[in-house]
Amino acid sequence: MGVGETSRDRIARRAAAELKDGMVVNLGIGIPTLVADFIPNGIEVVFHAENGILGAGPSPAPGEEDGFLCNAGGYPVTIVEGASYCDSAIAFAMIRRGCVDMTVLGALEVSEQGDLANWIVPGKRAAGIGGAMELAQKAKKVVAIMNHVNKDGAPKIKKRCELPLTAPACVDLIITDMAVMEVTADGLLLQEIMLPHTLEEVVRCTEASLKLPEEIIYIP
Amino acid sequence: MNKQRSLEEALDWITDGCTLMYGGFGGIGTPPTIIEGILDKGVRDLTLIGNDTGFPWIGIGRLVTEGRVRKVITSHIGSNPNAGRMMEDGRMEIIFYPQGTLAEKIRAGGVGLGGILVDVGMGTTIAEGKETVVIEGRTFLVEPALTADVAIVHASKADPYGNLVYDKSGRNFNPLVAMAGERTIAEADEIVPIGSLDPELIVTPGIFVNAVIAGKGVNWQWVWEKRAATESQGGPPRS
User: Fold this and answer.
1) Closest residue of A to B85, CA-based?
2) Beta carbon pairs, A and B, within 8 Å
3) What are the residue ranges of helices labelled H in chain A?
4) What number is the average pLDDT over the span A18-45?
5) How far is B94 from chain A (nearest CA, A)?
6) Domain tally for chain B?
7) Which top CATH class is A7-219?
8) Rounded-to-10 torsion of CA A188, A189, A191, A193
9) Of B120, B156, B224, the CB nearest to A76
10) Is B195 an 8 Å CB contact of chain A?
């Protein structure tokens, strides 16, 4: 972890390393939005926002905001050259049709089958679904980012999700403050560990079973 | 041909208990002058259909906050805590759909279809109890179309026939709800003479629009505008 780098930034930076040149990418609301700050040099991606922007750009300078040009979180953005606007049906056509190459979504729970739960906790006030189900089910690559355990220290990466699902078997990669895990046909493959966390700690904090690779990469 | 109306004339269609569709995403693209008019007129017991419930003092959220709404068909209420509270209290019924499914249900209503077939949400609780059909081996949910008594939209420009162009990301649900209202009221920031909009660039053809009213501009503070006490809630309306 760089000096002063928060675990949120660290997760976002690792997620940004999944970006490939030319990808169309949709970032969920919250920490996923930070991924845009860590785009690797030499990589150009097109940001899709489900409120009808293909080609969203960085935040405007203070005083330059436009009340009619905002991202899906309701905050001002800019557009890049070649951008287009569309209505919400077309914005979701792009997702449903499989034109979005990658999405980064926050998660409450992920199972070892790649099931994602991120929209409702029974008994708590639901904010609603938004575009999460389309993105989770239809984006070509789904990166789930989350804290490895909840505030009570209980695992959020489980054998089976207890919370209602956003979409079954949709997650391809899980990035947490402790580790990076790939969802494979026969379970979760632990690939990387974020130092100073240890293998023993990651295994203890994960309810799902983890397959180990020949070599684990430790991220400083 | 001239569909220009006063706000008062257009509001005649919006009555207690009616079903109201609205454009807007977090308030962006929701017609502020019509919302103000609905509040002033005192309309109650509305059923709303639209993407989200805005913020407490922004967009459609103002109708929710003022207790004018009985039911909402929407995809998200997270930015308006008042909507969440009223749902918990049982004062307001909320039905959630995935955002893209909601958009297509409205579009289907607008284009004269009975509904849509969609596989988003299969394997989740939102599919429970819903009719399904199998087409070429794939299972789809049957989602009926949505229409409304009145649809309200915001346009940057309208001509007197009701041809509309929108304003950047303010477009969102507007072109969809514009087609799905039994009557559609368009609020435009600028009303331009017939013939001055480029026919190649008109987004909503005027055939779908019943009334064009002159907008008075956004009368709320956006959440990102500088504000002291009510951070993230949206401030009360600007006087």
Assistant:
1) A125
2) 152
3) 7-16, 88-96, 132-138, 199-204
4) 95
5) 10
6) 1
7) alpha beta
8) 50
9) B224
10) no
